[in-house]
Write a structure and sequence with these properties.
The complex is a heterodimer of chains A (346) and B (258).
Chain A: H1 10-16, H2 20-27, H3 37-48, H4 53-75, H5 84-99, H6 106-128, H7 133-153, H8 155-158, H9 184-205, H10 208-218, H11 220-225, H12 230-256, H13 266-279, H14 286-304, H15 309-323, H16 327-345
Chain B: E1 4-15, E2 18-29, E3 33-37, H1 44-52, E4 59-64, E5 67-68, H2 74-80, E6 82-85, H3 97-108, H4 123-135, H5 151-164, E7 169-173, H6 181-192, E8 199-203, H7 207-213, E9 216-221, E10 224-229, H8 231-236, H9 238-245
Parallel strand pairs in B: 3-8, 3-9, 6-7, 7-8
Antiparallel strand pairs in B: 1-2, 1-4, 4-5, 9-10
Helix pairs in contact in B: 3-4, 3-5, 4-5, 5-6
Chain lengths: 346, 258
């Protein structure tokens, strides 16, 4: 059989469907039962802990933000420390539109937040993605710092250090009002937004485009050598990731009804990175696990040790760095494989 | 099927003061089986990098099928039909063997940019990759991570990825380097079974391989073409022997130790 005859004819497709590796690839994008769990948990939290819905909103926003970073960092291997730039861009878009009563409809506001963040991601990506590694990392921090200073200096419009308080947000679908005291509507809205964004990211990472991002992460030189337009793919990925971060930022502004400079700082950029590393990057659900663990730790440790709760978090991070390089999910996967192997052996 | 597929005219590349490739005029015919040999540091890999666009020449031109591609980027040249393998494996080590080949197939088929259709439903891509693995007798390792495989097998995947691009010109940079001699025949068999219309240029140190495979041989020394000819002519050339024995450069007088 010659190589020329090996193109995707019926025989080789049939042969592929008998091969476990090919079957695995063909089935990888299908939903598995446990993927419903985060959403069941999300609704359960709503029903069981109505007093914690403010915390819940915070959690959902953090998950979405970490998910946006996962696309760039976990899949395409774009190591950035300036992702809060896009979060902030989204937050200020929603905040300023609402604060000046220009636009308060929540869903279209989020779309505008996404567009603004994507534009910033695209333009900065055009320049920054010519570099790699540490240079790129430093430049992402610089971009974020520029935006932060711009927001600070434009205080007549952005409120500067004090930010924009008491944002008016129109009811969702014109019916469900955002109540500042009870976060029921905010929570369900945020859950819905997260779900839509998650489905989008999930489709993306299992598409050929998502696969090629993985290829770029694994071996960028080889991607060039198979004819892949690497830089274009990276810029597209970076812009999409920025758009999602912008939605997260917009959602944060809507659920908390205020915007301030903390949306843009290095603090937030570092936190989301920690969340993602904690949960495990490049595996979709790392954002969920990381956000839950991080915020739960923050919440409970801060109650026990109000002054030194970050110490506990630091210790956990050291342990993760030493023993679970792929985060909590990666550790879980390893243990599960070991368990299956042992069960198979005995 | 006839004619020149790939041609270089006065191709030069310097790294600072070092002229790694100097003034190479080279022609690769359609369907050629051409070997490029020469001592270490002769500039063979630099030459390949110039052909594939990894490096830009300081002077000279590269033509593919008569068309000037000197300024084309690496990825563009792949689309034009130039594929290569690397001297040291460059694979997606964390991915399975099948995923490695699928990556190349999807990219060649021009569908790697599509975002909203699951890659798993492209059974044509997966099927083609699987067929290629079967042809190279790699089907049983398809689900293994590349990093788990022995080096010889990894070399085959390197070849599989290049073939998956369906090139017109295939550049093989020491395809059997680092492979135990007991296994190298697998790679050589695969190379011998390449479709006839592909023009193949192979860099190789093993003279048995060169003489078994190549119909034409170019010897490079110090960045320049030293001599070109049929394997028989090259084998019989006393100057080539000297170069390979490391006793003299191209300009050294042979009479000194005749």
């Amino acid at each position: 059989m010659s190589v020329a005859a090996s193109s995707g004819d019926a025989a080789s497709v049939a042969a592929a469907s008998e091969n476990s590796a090919a079957l695995m690839l063909m089935r990888r994008h299908r939903f598995r039962w446990w993927e419903a769990l985060p959403w069941i948990a999300g609704i359960a939290l709503y029903l069981a802990f109505p007093d914690y819905l403010g915390f819940g909103c915070d959690l959902l926003v953090t998950i979405l933000f970490a998910l946006s970073l996962d696309l760039a960092l976990g899949y395409a291997g774009i190591i950035t420390l300036g992702h809060a730039a896009f979060f902030g861009a989204g937050a200020y878009t929603v905040g300023m539109l609402a604060s000046y009563n220009l636009w308060t409809e929540p869903i279209t506001s989020l779309l505008m937040a996404a567009a603004v963040a994507a534009a910033i991601g695209f333009l900065s990506g055009l320049v920054l993605l010519r570099t790699t590694g540490l240079t790129f990392l430093m430049l992402t921090i610089c971009t974020m710092a520029l935006l932060e200073q711009a927001a600070n200096m434009a205080y007549p419009y952005t409120g500067g250090f004090d930010g924009l308080p008491s944002l008016p947000i129109a009811p969702v679908f014109g019916i469900f009002e955002f109540n500042p005291l009870y976060a029921n509507t905010q929570y369900l809205f945020a859950l819905g937004v997260l779900f839509v964004c998650f489905v989008f990211v999930r489709i993306l990472v299992y598409s050929p485009f998502g696969q090629s991002l993985t290829g770029i992460r694994e071996n960028v030189l080889r991607m060039h050598a198979i004819g892949s337009p690497v830089r274009r793919r990276l810029i597209v990925c970076y812009s999409i990731s920025a758009a999602l971060a912008g939605i997260a930022g917009g959602l944060w502004a809507q659920t908390t009804a205020y915007v301030n400079l903390s949306a843009l700082g290095l603090d937030r950029a570092a936190t989301v990175l920690i969340v993602l590393i904690l949960g495990g990057y490049g595996r979709l659900y790392g954002a969920f696990v990381g956000a839950v663990v991080y915020l739960a730790l923050e919440h409970f440790l801060a109650q026990i040790y109000p002054t030194a709760w970050q110490l506990g978090l630091g210790l956990l991070l050291v342990l993760i760095a030493l023993f679970a390089r792929n985060g909590i999910l990666g550790l879980g996967e390893t243990l599960w494989r070991r368990y299956v192997a042992r069960r198979g052996a005995s | 099927m006839t004619g020149i597929r790939l041609e270089t005219q006065d191709l030069c590349r310097s790294f600072g003061a070092l002229a790694a490739v100097q003034g190479i005029d080279f022609k690769l015919a359609a369907g050629a089986r051409h070997a490029l040999i020469g001592p270490n540091g002769a500039g063979k890999t630099t030459f390949i990098n110039l052909l594939t666009g990894v490096l830009k020449p300081t002077r000279g031109r590269v033509l593919l099928g008569g068309r000037d591609i000197t300024s084309a980027a690496q990825a563009e040249r792949v689309k034009f039909g130039i594929a290569r393998t690397f001297q040291i494996n460059r694979l997606f080590r964390g991915l399975s063997v099948l995923e490695n080949v699928c990556m190349a197939v999807a990219e060649r088929a021009g569908m790697a940019g599509s975002m909203f259709y699951p890659a798993g439903r492209r059974t044509d891509v997966i099927g083609e990759a699987m067929g290629l693995l079967q042809m190279l007798k790699l089907a049983d390792t398809a689900r293994h991570r590349v990093s788990e495989l022995p080096y010889g097998r990894q070399r085959l995947i390197e070849l599989a990825i290049a073939i998956a691009l369906k090139p017109e010109v295939l550049l093989l940079d020491e395809p059997a380097a680092g492979v135990p001699s007991a296994e190298s025949h697998i790679i050589l068999d695969a190379i011998e079974r390449l479709p006839e219309h592909i023009a193949v240029l192979i860099i190789e140190h093993d003279m048995d391989v060169v003489f078994r495979f190549a119909k034409r041989v170019t010897v490079m020394v110090s960045g320049a073409v030293f001599v070109e000819g049929t394997p028989r002519e090259i084998e019989a050339d006393p100057q080539v022997r000297e170069v390979y024995l490391g006793q003299a450069g191209p300009a050294a007088p042979r009479a000194a130790h005749g």
